[in-house]
Design goal:
Chain B: It holds the Pfam family HATPase_c_2. The complex is a heterodimer of chains A (110) and B (137). By secondary structure, chain A is α/β, with parallel strands linked by helices. Chain A is built from five helices and five strands. Chain A starts with a strand and ends with a helix. The mean pLDDT of chain A is 96. Chain B is 38% helix and 29% strand. In chain B, 34% of the residues are buried. In chain B, a hairpin with a 2-residue loop joins strand 4 (117-123) and strand 5 (126-134). A five-stranded antiparallel sheet of chain B has the order 1-2-3-5-4, covered by helices on one side. The mean pLDDT of chain B is 93. Chain B has helices at 13-26, 32-53, 94-100, 106-114; strands at 2-8, 61-69, 72-79, 117-123, 126-134. Chain B has 137 residues and is an alpha+beta fold. Classes of the chains: A alpha/beta (110), B alpha+beta (137). The A-B interface holds A 1, 20, 22-24, 26, 30, 53, 55-57, 59-61, 63-68, 83-85, 87-88, 91-94, 97 and B 11-12, 14-15, 18, 32-33, 35-37, 39-40, 43-44, 47, 50-51, 94-95, 97-99, 101-107, 109-110, 113-114.
Chain lengths: 110, 137
């Protein structure tokens, strides 16, 4: 079960993820990010506090945008991941490729 | 300890698989991080089989057997779909995956990094993938 809420805040678009991302629902995450980009946002913040689980299907969604976002100068930042979910990003080395922060404050200040 | 589960080949079954794994692994007093990683590795193999070998045919099934031997935990995943030996799969470089804007290819990297041993055999149409994790008993 995955739900994604979108909020606008001072020029940033915040995606609040709640639940689990796997191969059955990663398309929801993909569509949410695509919509934010189509709507013209150039600063996407992903609040991962409610993210309980993510498999390679979800990680692959993030990966597939990195190159385009770099070219188009769109910021993608993830924050407030639980330790166990953050470890999954680390196993793959995604912590080196993506901007991941401990909380919203540090994400906004960077 | 010996547990087993029959998994229908549809991605909707993955959450049910996680519930089963969480309950089974809960008996072992693993850390939260270790438990999630084992669940993830087993799910990645099953998701690959469901999607690629069985094309999400809900009438097909995968069998998962979990055994605890001294010092190791063995996850045996059996199916009768198209054989896929992940040991033959060359893990892609992460920067290449990024450059190609691909969504796939990460699952097997995770499995190989999380598990200590991986075995595969295919005999008379039955494929068996064994994921082995060593631990201090």
């Amino acid at each position: 079960m995955l739900s994604i809420e979108t909020q606008e805040e001072n020029g940033h678009t915040i995606l609040l993820l709640k639940g689990e991302v796997d191969a059955s629902n990663s398309v929801i995450l993909d569509e949410a990010i695509t919509k934010v980009v189509v709507d013209g946002s150039n600063s996407i913040l992903v609040d991962g506090a409610g993210l309980e689980y993510i498999s390679s299907a979800g990680l692959g969604v993030f990966m597939s945008y990195l190159e385009d976002f770099q070219e188009k100068e769109i910021d993608l930042k993830i924050y407030s991941l639980s330790e166990r979910v953050y470890e999954v990003f680390k196993i793959l080395g995604l912590d080196q490729l993506m901007s991941i922060y401990p909380n919203k404050k540090t994400a906004l200040e960077s | 300890m010996k547990h087993q589960m029959k998994i229908s080949c549809q991605t909707a079954a993955l959450s049910e698989l996680r519930v089963f794994l969480k309950k089974t692994l809960g008996e072992l007093h693993l850390s939260d991080v270790d438990q999630l990683q084992l669940i993830l590795a087993v799910e990645e193999v099953c998701a690959n089989l469901i999607i690629h070998s069985h094309k999400c045919n809900a009438l097909d099934f995968i069998q998962l057997d979990i055994k605890q031997n001294p010092g190791k935990l063995i996850f045996e995943i059996t199916d009768e779909g198209k054989a896929f030996n992940m040991l033959d799969y060359e893990v892609p470089d992460l920067n290449k995956v990024k450059g190609d804007k691909r969504k796939g290819g990460l699952g097997i990297i995770l499995v190989k990094k999380i598990m200590d041993e991986i075995e595969f055999d295919s005999t008379r149409g039955t494929n068996t993938c064994r994921l082995i994790k060593w631990f201090q008993s």
